[in-house]
Each structure stands twice: as structure tokens, then as C-alpha cells.
Design a protein that fits this description.
single chain; 181 residues; mainly alpha; flat
Length: 181
């Protein structure tokens, strides 16, 4: 194994080891109490939301960075402008790695809302209407928190995608133009 693989393996063990032990401990506890199905539902919800959040966040941020790369490539008339900092392959790997990191951070926030999402998917009617809006109170307990979370998550993802695009433009168009000593 080369050094990179060893470093990646050590980082995975440092990050994933305690997480795996926590999952195993919870699984054993829920199984001992006879609620393994409940814990399985929670894990399935968390994994599903993590995948959805990662796909959405990565798609937005990486799409913005790729679009900014293509548009900045059209704006650069001389191909030698980028050669002093990074070549195209290194730049593409850096953009993909940064987008993946941001997508994973967004996915962590998305999967942390598993309990609200499960309540949203299986609401129970209160059979009492709100006096101001005339809606069942269950909407304010089960649906509104999810809508607010999705609004905030999407706002964060779009702002991070905007920052990724600005970063690509700055790196490709502004930094090569700066005078060097």
C-alpha cells in the first residue's frame, strides 16, 4: 500500500470507528429490548436521507462549479493563464473533492432530521382546527417543521453552490491576473 491509502485508511478508522461502535451498541441494546425493527427503521431513514442529501448537495455544488469552470474557460483567451497555479487535471480533482466534501457536510445535516421526516411521512390528525388558519393542528406539528428545514437546507446548499462558483471564477480568472513579484 502506498502512503495515501494508509492515510485514508487511518482517517476512516478515526472517523468511522467510534460511529460504528455506537451503531453496534445501539443495535445490541434495541435488540435486547425487542425493538430491533424500530432501530432498523431509524437506520434506514438516516441512510436514505444521507444519500438524498449527499446527492442533492453534491449535485448543486458540483454543478455550479462545473458551470463556472466551463464559462470561465470560454472567458480565458490565453490557455497559459492557469498553467502557473495548477493544471486542468489537478483543478478538476480539486473542484470534485471540494464539492464532495461540501456534499457530505450537507448530507450530514439532512440525515440528522430523520425523526422529523418520519413524523412527516406518518402524521396523525389532531381533529382540531387552528382558529386562525383553519388547518388541522397536525400540519403545524408534523409538516411545517419539515418545510422550514427544507427551506433552510436549500438556502444553505444554494449559497454554498454560489460560493463554489465564485471560488472557481476567482481561481481561474482573477488569481492568474494578479502581479507576481
Amino acid at each position: 500500500m502506498n502512503r495515501r491509502m494508509i492515510i485514508i485508511l487511518i482517517l476512516l478508522l478515526i472517523w468511522g470507528g467510534p460511529k460504528a461502535l455506537g451503531i453496534l451498541t445501539d443495535w445490541l441494546w434495541f435488540t435486547d429490548l425487542g425493538f430491533a425493527g424500530v432501530y432498523r427503521t431509524r437506520l434506514l431513514a438516516q441512510v436514505t436521507l444521507f444519500i438524498l442529501g449527499a446527492a442533492g448537495g453534491l449535485g448543486l455544488v458540483w454543478g455550479s462549479a462545473v458551470l463556472a469552470t466551463r464559462l470561465s474557460r470560454q472567458a480565458i483567451s490565453a490557455p497559459h493563464l492557469l498553467s502557473g497555479l495548477l493544471n486542468e487535471r489537478q483543478f478538476a480533482v480539486t473542484v470534485a473533492g471540494g464539492s464532495l466534501l461540501v456534499g457530505l457536510m450537507l448530507a450530514g445535516g439532512f440525515s440528522g432530521q430523520w425523526d422529523q421526516m418520519l413524523r412527516f411521512l406518518r402524521p396523525t390528525a389532531f381533529d382540531a382546527a387552528d382558529p386562525l388558519f383553519g388547518r388541522d393542528i397536525a400540519f403545524f406539528v408534523f409538516a411545517l417543521p419539515v418545510y422550514r428545514f427544507l427551506q433552510g437546507w436549500l438556502l444553505t446548499a444554494v449559497l454554498l453552490a454560489l460560493l463554489a462558483g465564485i471560488g472557481v471564477y476567482a481561481f481561474r480568472l482573477v488569481l492568474p491576473q494578479l502581479p507576481t513579484k
